[in-house]
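Recall the central idea of this unit: under ordinary conditions, the amino acid sequence of a chain determines the structure it adopts. In this exercise we apply that idea directly, starting from the sequence alone.
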Amino acid sequence: MDETLSALDLAAVEERIAGGTTQRRGEAVMARGEGCWLWDTAGRRYLDLTAAQGVAMLGHCHPVLSRAIAEQAHTLISCPNFFYQETRARFVDKLASVLPQHLGHVFLANSGAEAVDGAIKFARLATGRTGLVAAMRSFHGRTVGAVSLTWEPKYRKPFEPLLEVAHVPYNNLEKLAEAVTENTACVVLEVVQGEGGVHVGDAAFLQGAQQLCRERGALLVLDEIQTGFGRTGRWFGLEHYGLEPDIICLAKGLGAGFPMGAIAYTEPVQAALYPGAHGTTFGGNPLACAAGLAALQVYQEGVIEQAAGRGRLLFDRLNAVLGERRIVREVRGLGLMVGIELREKAGRYLKALMDDHGVLALPAGSNVLRLLPPLVISEEEIEIGVQAIASVLPE
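Accordingly, the structure predicted from this sequence is:
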């Protein structure tokens, strides 16, 4: 891009590219990042407690990740899947080593939404059924298949008719049992509902869902797009519950900020697939696989264990500072995935955090302030964030 463009010119170009689809949260034009921090073109620094919508798990521009991408870019960027390729093979081998052992097969995609769409196809092939069951307050992506599973009407209604999906209340096993029938191909659930308000799954509900699927011949699909790769303090959210799903959908932390997605699935699902059943042009390209391989190597260096401790610290500090404030209904979440539910809309507090304190956070619904900091966040950076939140929320 022409370096002579002003910040206003850049904003105008972005508006044209986005086509009015992106809701802006300020006039800042972000220029660079390092660790948990971003800088705009005016030189102002921001503490990023969003990890770029939950993807920059190792922070911005982690040196190992950046070096791996640069080195691969000088070697081979694109390679179709009908050729074998070393970087891809090394990545898949490394990914298999951290996945639950029963998920022995992987399909590499470009994004989380594509992983969800692929999971629907795989489940229908494996079961010979077409029915889909998902949860209220769920969010699974923006493609037609993924938005069909998503519950929030504002995402769905403009694009109806969509795939037919039975939506049941989250954490309500009785209603789930009523919805799963002989025609159900799969039940798709998040272990923690992110966009829907950071609602944590009950063990009885998630384990009961798995048992229902086993008894009735449906597949259990877990959307681990946001909860995977250490976000909850473990490699995958399912580990908190002892779950063994048939399929899991992965993205976000898979490439630690570099776009990629994946579906991991069992041998019975693999047996139902055939050449041409599913495909991808860019999925599993060497550049993405180099990023994913570097990310997995860094995660294995104690980052996930550290994130579990940082998550406990964040909860303790938020509860200590906010626990007596009437505006705060609840602080909830798992690991470094935190929702602060307010008794009023969160929008103006998110704006005040950014404008007055240089701290970035996310909404989750209209009244939940969501925190998804990088896993590498320090204790000092956590305290900066907590004090900023305390400053903008009324006593």
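The two ends are 46 Å apart (CA to CA).
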